[in-house]
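Write out the bound-state structure for zinc ion.
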Amino acid sequence: MRTEARAEIFVRGLVQGVGFRPFCHRLASKLGLAGTVRNLGDAGVHLILEGEKGKIEEFLETMFHDHPPLAKILEVEVRLSKARGEFKEFIVSKSEPSSFGKISLVPPDIAICEKCLSEIENPSDRRYRYPFTTCVDCGPRFTIIESLPYDREGTSMKDFPLCSDCSLEYHNPEDRRYRAESTCCPKCGPKVFLLNSDGRPISAGDPLLETAKLLDEGFIVAIKGIGGTHVAAKTTDDDVLIRLRKNFCRPQQPFAVMSLNLERIRTFAEVDQKAESLLASVQRPIVLLKKKRDFPLSDLVSPGLDTIGVMLPYSGIHHLILSEGKDPAYIMTSANLPGLPMVIDNSEALSALRGLVDYFLLHDRRIVNRCDDSVVRFTADGHVFIRRSRGYAPLPLEMKFRFGKGIAALGGDLCVTGAVTKDGKCFLTQHIGDVSKFETLLYLRAAIHRLIDLLKIEKIDVVVCDMHPAYSTTGEAKRLADETGAEIVQVQHHHAHLAGLAAEYGLDELLGIAADGAGYGLDGTIWGGEVLLIQKERFEKVGGLKACSMPGGDLATIYPVRMVAGILWDALSKEELREILVEFCLQGFPRGEKEIEVLLAQLNRKVNVPLTSSLGRLLDASSCLLGICSARTYEGEPAMKLEALASAGDPSRFRPEIERSGNFIDQASLLLQVVEALRAGVKKSDIAAGVQASVARALAEIAVEKAEELGIKTVGVSGGVFYNDAIARTVKEVVERRGLRFLISRQIPLGDGGISAGQAVVASFLTS
Ligand SMILES: [Zn+2]
Ligand SMILES: [Zn+2]
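---
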């Protein structure tokens, strides 16, 4: 072949595990170019092209604009030279472990594609009913990757050598499974098997069909999937749900469900266009949807809430079970014991879940990286992350901000993710969870190390953690800093929330409202309803809720009646307070009126009575006063149930006057107006809606006034309270009515899953 030019090309981005090499092969062959393509150890791709210069240009043009839909090109480096005639045709070469210093992206898991799905549904296809069917466009990636480059040898699929049929497909450039590293078939791939509660195999013809039958009969089945294990059960039988809740010590916590298709979801939940496209996206997150008024599933799926978390099947395993089942949806909740990471290993499943489930549907492929389902919901006209995990992790956050290098951030205490930075980008770990248990802290440690390894980060210079001295992540930061020789930076919790938000939109300053359950404040009080001025690495508290008593500390988060008493303590005499507690909150004192005296004595002595300005606690107290929730069994429960009740109410029917001293809101006056309204017989749903709207409006007004005073054009919100659509929307309205720009994170989780990213932002400023 007579060649004229040679181009050596390095492509960085999401280019492994997404069909990029087969794409290059097809394109080069079509254009008559010779050369080679190979995966590199840094997750990038190296190409050599030889041929007519015009054709090479055409190749690059097409590569930029018509690459496989899942691929993402961040950077391309082209070195042109004279052709050497080294290649006769275009070939895919063996991958190279080497890297060229810069990163590319580690592919996340991708939901099963339509083509693979039609194969497993086709009785004449050799992959008929085979649950591990994947191709170059779909299947597990991150959860099976041990090392890069992304080749079968670097994944847990290496335990399954290709059979001759699969090998033919794998080596045929015309085939959809050309270089599809996770491909397999019933002959050579992993297998599912069904075990009874003692872990003994059950000889079922088709374990998946049998699983569907067992679920419909009301049994609880642990199902090992792609990135972890679910506990599955039917959703239409109260008795099944009562047993499930009892076994897993989750008396009230909402369970996510999986439903075969959108049509079935529409029978129990409201699905609009936006929700539909998220549900069906390749990431297949759990999407929080509004329950239908006529709700055919058991109320015990998400008791006391007006929403339900729903996802579509994302693997062959789920499809094959759900397509046989009769229920409109099945519970698919992470199989974990309270506070512990989700079970991924077969023997671990059998020991940890023994006695809690009736059957186990397991398989023999190892899960290398545990990855919980992602959770999103719609708030203030767009979607926000509650949990950014499967399907998204470990892709970097898309931010208008260049992060400093060599930063590792460990997050807070609940709903934790970790973060590392490289090449200006921030990579969040998958969802880790509540790290108060040592096992979960170890999971965080391992997940961060895994990212450091996969991304080939050579040195950690800065470790970032919260300011709370007792958080296990603070201790972990010291350990990691000792190990790596890095310096430690501590970042205030709400500063991290809002610094992340500002960075997401590329702003150096904003007026922010950070509202959540709790975060360690600078003044020794517990923050959670703050208006902060954010300027790069600096912040200043300029307003918020006035701090009030929190008798019993953490106990007051579990028993919100303590917050009712704490908030009203300074505003009332003991007798007046006692009267209100007896009238509205007796259900909050399991041991009766005697307990009220103990609580009042504690407030009087001020022993173990920290101060808090948390909006989460104020909402909890309102929830308790309205008789909605008097004992919290999961994070956020009282406030979430308040939100559910409020969604049926009209905020214009209860408009309390919010009293302020300067820029600080008096919480007691708000609660006293709630008491008055209750006594006047105002509908509880209207009161709930009015509480949310009035406090949101008051915080927004403080932020807007301050922004106008300082000439700042943007007001943003962050923190778990803003998952509440009514609250976020009210702030948005106030801000936009005054001609300012309203911001909320669409990339970083609003809750504490976003703390690590915000910590990394502040550390980037401090060390640049
Ligand atoms: Zn496929
Ligand atoms: Zn095979």
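---
The first helix runs from residue 20 to 31.
Residues 106-190 form a domain with the DHBP synthase fold (CATH 3.90.870.30).
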